[in-house]
Amino acid sequence: MNKKYKILYHHQTLLDGAEAIHILEIFNSFKKLGHDIKMIANVTSQKDKFAPDSHKGHTGLIHKIRGLLPQHVFEFVRILYNFFDLIKMYLAFRNEKADFIYKRHANYNFAPVLAARLLKIPMILEVNSIYSYKGRLIFENIKFPRISYFIENYIYKNILFIVTVSTRLKAILIKRGIKAENIIVIPNGANLDKFNPDKYDGELLKRQWGNNNIFLGFVGILRNWHGIEFFLETLRNIDLNKLNLKIIIIGDGEKRSEYEKFVQKNNMKDFIIFTGRIPHEEIPAYISAFDLSIMPDSNDYGSPMKILEYMAMQKPVLAPRLIPIEDIISNNEDGLLFERNNQIDLQKKIEFLVNNLEERNRIGNNARKKILLELNWQRNVEKTLIKYEQKIAN
């Protein structure tokens, strides 16, 4: 893997939130390994300073009018946009003369795949979600699932190979006719430098939150699929005062006021702190103040980045027993898994960790070791390049 490649990174996102972190971490990891990488995309945000000016603004315009259009009209515009985008991407790809293109999968976005195929440039497709998958449609409805299904299957069958973030997504892709050898599972990663427990001292935050308490923390958007309601209902049955336990919930979202009312109504406001949204660069300092961490729930296909960041910060993690999470955590070794939506099981696991400092330290240390050895962004890129060289050799 000594050869240095010229790589184009294509995405069609708002470059915000978790997707922005993922995109920039992968991009920067290729760069740190010495490869010549350039973003080339119809970007939707001026935050995307890596993309050439000639590709800025087009999808941005579409997203600006999104709020003015009914959803089915907006999605139809996105489909039609491919025919304009095909010309743009064909010319851009031809001019850059890359060894391969690394593309983040986006709904309806087939133009870059077709352009790369016409130019015979290998494309690696990163699949974090399958937009026409029924498990996703529960949380995020789309108006043309059949069209999405057809386009996605075209995309999956016309690239070099797929990098996907969970074995669950791999299983879905195989059911759709994609060969197993054309799929590699690489869960999300953590930034080893940013999420380094040696860099932070959480004692100041602990003093602000309450002296001599044990802190159980969550970081994420307050939305349905993160299971905060289930978590709060579980906490209602725990004697938080007896355990000397305080809960720190970092994040914001449409459900926050509802959760705060639940806490007030159930007389838990002295034990649960809602911090609101914290800038991502400050998150490691906050996690450093946790004694243990939690992901109450997730969808059944995604790779939760926050779990990896907790682990990188040497914190024991409580998480539901889901296939993508089992891709990351070895139960009782570098995390503790509970049965999904089972309040009694979660309560037992919380009480066990709160009452066992030695176990908290053991699990947290193992978690950090796993991140150092396997689950970091640079290692993810190295695995991708190994797969690429194997495919090209064959």
Question: What global shape is seen?
Answer: globular
Query: Treating each run of at least 4 consecutive H or I residues as one helix, how many helices?
Result: 17
Which runs of at least 5 residues are low in confidence (pLDDT < 50)? Answer: 44-59
Return Rg in Å: 22 Å
Amino-to-carboxy terminus distance: 16 Å
Task: Tell how many strands the DSSP assignment holds.
Answer: 12
Structural class: alpha/beta
CATH fold title of the largest domain: Rossmann fold
Write the layout of secondary structure elements.
Layout: E1 6-10, H1 17-32, E2 36-39, H2 58-64, H3 71-96, E3 100-104, H4 111-118, E4 123-127, H5 134-137, H6 145-156, E5 161-164, H7 167-175, E6 183-185, H8 203-209, E7 214-219, H9 228-236, H10 240-243, E8 245-250, H11 256-265, E9 272-276, H12 283-287, E10 292-294, H13 305-312, E11 317-320, H14 323-326, E12 336-338, H15 343-354, H16 357-373, H17 377-393
Parallel strand pairs: 1-2, 1-3, 3-4, 4-5, 5-6, 7-8, 7-10, 8-9, 10-11, 11-12
Helix pairs in contact: 1-17, 3-4, 9-15, 13-16
Short description:
The protein has 394 residues and is an alpha/beta fold. It contains 17 helices and twelve strands. The strands form two sheets. A six-stranded parallel β-sheet has the order 2-1-3-4-5-6, sandwiched between helices. Strands 9-8-7-10-11-12 form a six-stranded parallel β-sheet, with helices on both faces.
